[in-house]
Amino acid sequence: MKTSRIVAFDGCVLGLAFGIDNSSIVNSTTKEIVLDGIGRVRRLLSTLAEDKARLIVPSLVIAEMGAANIEATKQGLVSVSSTNSVEVVPIDTRCAYEWAELSRQFLKTLPDGLTPIEVARQTASARKFDYGILAAARVHRCQVLYASDATLRSRAQALNISCVAVEDLPPPLPEQSDLFAEN
After folding, report:
1. Residue 44 above 60 pLDDT?
2. Mean pLDDT over each residue of the chain, to the nearest integer
3. Contact 55, 8 (CB under 8 A)
4. Chain mean position to CA 101
5. Is 101 left (phi over 0), alpha (psi -120 to 50) or beta?
6. CB 16 within 8 A of CB 9
7. Rounded (10°) angle between helices 37-50 and 70-83
8. At residue 85, what are phi and psi to the nearest 5 degrees?
9. At 141, is the pLDDT very low, low, confident or very high (cuts 50, 70, 90)?
10. Number of other residues whose CB lies within 10 A of the CB of residue 103
């Protein structure tokens, strides 16, 4: 039996999948705002559905989204789940151990002069979400992470998880006119 491709989204990409516009997504190379992020991610969702890919969403990403708008998160999850194989994965014991290991690895690579306490204070919130997402991706054997966050992508690539940025997704297909409409 052929196993399906396993992919994961970060919070911004999941928000775009839910139809929540995030015009703060910036191309990491050109520093320009990425146009039509929602259309790009919806085209990706169609491709993933056709490929019968499995989309894992770490539960902490749902919590992050829900903190901003719980109703939109519920509706978005129902909508995306209607056409895609979506699994909200818990941060269980396996993920917790993986998360701890990622944190230990990070602390081994501190810049000169910074103590673990200083780094923890500067980046604790972002790092916690990043490592939670990465831990879930590794434990659930995710092959591709779709992420808007350049730091998250570089951390994932260091763990041999392929990454795709929103700006690297193909633009949405142009809408076709109704072939049977009367002129």
Report:
1. yes
2. 83
3. yes
4. 21
5. alpha
6. no
7. 40
8. -80, 100
9. very high
10. 16
